[in-house]
């Protein structure tokens, strides 16, 4: 099935972000094709969330460019960037807390109603994730894992042309984590969109991402397939020795 609104590539070029005297990252360049899945790994505080915040327009970069397809979206406001099609999920949950699951989904859909397109059949995902049974409950009363999956499904309701996922597996029980794989497969099957995924669960990274980059001390330490990158001694020293529970 070809999506009504085509997916777009994401390219960042020489991107830097500084908070006062703190250089979080400096001169980062990445290219993710319209149908690519790229993993970003790195130690706590490496700047992964800040990178997502800059790409999606929640923070302005200190230098560098962000392109969605051919379009320069650098420094555009978050709402504008999401209208153009970059949709992000959050490391913590991000639902409208007292609103029901159904209301949350309604708001997410309405947010991008102007974009149209065929029905995505999100009910299938809601059923699989166990959210259908909680449709009328306030989202903040759901177990954390369900809130997290609701946040992801809401992102899809906005019909992304490129998807940014900030630690989709964080806070999920190990047995729940395959739901993230299923979510990514679903997004790609229905919308064909590329995905940039920040994640600490290396098994999930290996399953989902044909390409990964390692962010460390504000620069890209390594890039390549998980097999290549995760066996490098400098990556093990900088990150993997301390990564996983
Ligand atoms: N708004 C801000 N103002 C000042 N410093 C910030 C701000 N946001 C993040 N930082 C700093 O930037 C650095 C990178 O933080 P960030 O949250 O991007 O890391 P991360 O790689 O996502 O870490 P984690 O794996 O723990 O989620 C940290 O030193 C953090 O304290
Ligand atoms: Mg983070």
Describe the structure concisely:
This protein has 245 residues and is an alpha/beta fold. The protein has 9 helices and 10 strands. The chain has helices at 48-55, 78-84, 101-111, 122-129, 144-157, 178-191, 202-208, 226-230, 233-243; strands spanning 10-19, 22-32, 37-41, 63-68, 71-72, 86-88, 162-166, 194-198, 211-216, 219-224.
Describe this structure in words.
- With 245 residues, this protein is an alpha/beta fold.
- Strand 1 and strand 2 form a beta hairpin.
- It has nine helices and ten strands.
- Helix 3 packs parallel to helix 5 (144-157) and helix 4 (122-129) runs antiparallel to helix 5.
- The protein has a six-stranded mixed sheet with strand order 6-7-8-3-9-10, with helices on both faces. The protein has a four-stranded antiparallel sheet with strand order 2-1-4-5, with helices on one face.
- It binds adenosine-5'-triphosphate (ATP) and magnesium ion (MG).
- The site of magnesium ion has 3 residues, from helix 1.
């Amino acid at each position: 099935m070809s999506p009504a609104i085509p997916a777009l590539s994401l390219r960042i070029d020489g991107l830097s972000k500084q908070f006062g005297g703190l250089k979080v990252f400096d001169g980062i360049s990445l290219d993710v094709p319209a149908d690519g899945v790229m993993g970003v790994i790195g130690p706590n505080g490496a700047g992964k969330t800040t990178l997502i915040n800059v790409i999606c327009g929640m923070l302005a970069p200190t230098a560098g460019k962000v392109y969605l397809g051919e379009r320069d979206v650098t420094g555009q406001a978050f709402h504008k960037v999401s209208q153009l099609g970059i949709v992000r999920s959050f490391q913590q949950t991000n639902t409208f807390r007292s609103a029901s699951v159904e209301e949350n989904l309604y708001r997410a859909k309405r947010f991008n109603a102007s974009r149209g397109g065929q029905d995505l059949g999100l009910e299938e995902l809601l059923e699989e994730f166990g959210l259908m049974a909680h449709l009328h409950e306030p989202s903040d009363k759901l177990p954390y894992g369900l809130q997290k999956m609701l946040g992801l499904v809401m992102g899809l309701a906005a019909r992304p042309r490129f998807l940014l996922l900030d630690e989709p597996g964080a806070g999920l029980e190990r047995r729940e984590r395959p739901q993230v794989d299923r979510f990514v497969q679903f997004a790609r099957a229905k919308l064909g969109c590329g995905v940039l995924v920040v994640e600490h669960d290396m098994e999930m990274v290996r399953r989902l991402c044909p390409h990964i980059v390692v962010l460390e001390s504000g620069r890209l330490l390594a890039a390549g397939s998980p097999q290549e990158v995760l066996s490098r001694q400098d990556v093990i020293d900088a990150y993997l020795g301390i990564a996983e529970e």
